[in-house]
Write a structure and sequence with these properties.
Structural class: mainly alpha
CATH architecture of the domain at 27-58 and 98-190: Up-down Bundle
Number of strands: 0
Radius of gyration: 25 Å
Mean pLDDT: 77
Number of helices: 7
CATH class of the domain at 27-58 and 98-190: Mainly Alpha
CATH superfamily of the domain at 27-58 and 98-190: STAT transcription factor, all-alpha domain
CATH topology of the domain at 27-58 and 98-190: Glutathione S-transferase Yfyf (Class Pi), Chain A, domain 2
Distance between the termini: 51 Å
Length: 191
């Protein structure tokens, strides 16, 4: 009986040590940190989309004197920006490689945000499994659904910009980008 009592005391001490080490910060703190990281990633993606739009508008305006067709659509704010910035007037045509590089960076960030969502879905599934053993489980899927909807919205905005800039991207890059877009969307739907 003394041996059982000693083993029980040792195991309880180890359990307490593990709980202290693993739960030094509340779970809500970790979730909030993860949510902020995802929100920051989405804001960065939306900023990239605006950069792509502004760059496309700039290229379109630079090509305007050579074209006889209708002018390119642009917002009043971006046209005011180009009028006020003397450096943009003297630069001439923006480099052709800047737009594809910007789009590739945005697609990379889109895939990183997708990975964050898939990781969170996997954690939710694991928590659901552990709930069968009596662990606490928060069944609220609203934050996860909101993340997925936000990412899909940004996905379609970026896809729209890529399709609008398809002439500048070339025949090699466009199919690869479209394949990456399809993979992002299909993996979100499948999981």
């Amino acid at each position: 009986l003394r041996l059982v009592a000693v083993l029980k005391a040792i195991l309880e001490g180890e359990k307490d040590a593990v709980l202290k080490r693993g739960h030094h910060l509340p779970l809500s703190f970790h979730r909030r940190q993860e949510e902020l990281k995802f929100s920051l990633g989405l804001q960065r993606l939306q900023h990239r989309i605006r950069e792509i739009q502004a760059l496309r508008d700039g290229q379109c305006r630079h090509q305007l004197p050579a074209l006889t067709g209708p002018p390119c659509p642009s917002s009043a704010a971006s046209s005011q920006l180009n009028v006020r910035d003397p450096q943009l007037k003297t630069e001439g045509k923006p480099p052709e490689s800047e737009l594809p590089a910007l789009i590739l960076e945005a697609v990379k960030e889109l895939e990183a945000a997708k990975q964050q969502i898939l990781k969170r879905i996997q954690i939710w599934k694991r928590q659901q499994q552990l709930a069968g053993n009596g662990a606490l489980f928060e069944e609220n899927l609203a934050p996860l659904q909101k993340r997925c909807e936000s990412l899909v919205e940004v996905h379609f905005q970026l896809h729209q910009q890529v399709m609008a800039a398809s002439a500048e991207l070339g025949a090699e890059l466009l199919p690869r980008l479209l394949e990456r877009f399809n993979e992002v969307l299909s993996s979100l739907v499948k999981r």
